[in-house]
Known about the structure:
The protein contains 20 helices and 2 strands. It has helices at residues 2-9, 13-20, 22-25, 27-34, 42-55, 74-83, 86-102, 108-124, 128-136, 139-149, 152-169, 173-180, 183-194, 199-213, 217-225, 228-238, 243-257, 262-270, 273-283, 288-297, and strands spanning 304-307, 313-316.
Amino acid sequence: VLKFLQVCCKNNEGNKVGWITSSRGDSLRRLVNLISFKRASLDVLLEACRLITILCRFDDFREKTSGPAVVSSSNDTVLELSRCGLIQVLKEWLLEADIAKNSKEETCSSSLLLPAIWTTIRVLAVHDRTVQSIVACGILESALETFTTTTPEDNVELLASLVGLFRNLSANDEIKTTLCFSDVLSSLLKYCRNYIEHTQLQEHSCGFFAAMALRKPKNATRILQYGGVEVIVTAMTQHPTITLIQRQGCLALRNIASRISSERRQIMLDQDAKRVLVQAGVCSAGCIDEAYAALRDLGCEPTKTTVHADGTVSSRPQMFGEIKPNFRPVYD
């Protein structure tokens, strides 16, 4: 049933709302009760986590030819799941999964359990109220311990899930500064250098750097000092065709460059930041504006060439404020 619901709800916002509002609007509470600690098998929990991840993420990008525009229900879904006690249920399963991980009887299902739970917690960390609940019940503390004690050789997927969670939690200024000045930053940089081919780890890491540097000059300076710019440049160089990595890399470089001194911007230029930004602007249609803004904030003088419908071409610098920034503070 859970797998069937996943297929029905994926990429279809109408089906999500239809199922959530069924059973007199009690579907989400029933789902949480289904996976309450000690009631569900590991396989049921895994499938439930995958369903929750789909329900809490807007993924319906179909073109509408008629009728009202599709409106995301993810924010309301996240809040309702939190009210149903999902965060506490996941906390209890985390404790159980840690016990299984440290025992000699670890199974294939239990090795998949931790990444699934952390990914589910990540999609819940898109609202300040749920972020506060995650911190209050000790999940952030548990995430920090898991991240610093797990090695990529043990489970690189688990580490990527945790970085995705840190990325979302960094919408909170206090939390992101705590993360930036903890052992998380140095550990993350090491993992990124060693696992450059892991695309999800690289994307989440670039997004995490972008979120940490936003509005926080001291965080931007620390990321630069610890070699974060070099890691971002390497990720963008190694994955030139993956738009998600290119876009998050551009945002990260821009957020860092706009909050440091001109002398430190020169260090970024010496580390080849300009080259990867130009490459992103030329090769990735999905991040032209982000690359342009990053180059401008680095002190370069980029121009933007536009080919109009009538075939004419215009090229001029883009003025600040012409294009609304498209930075999302959280990843859903």
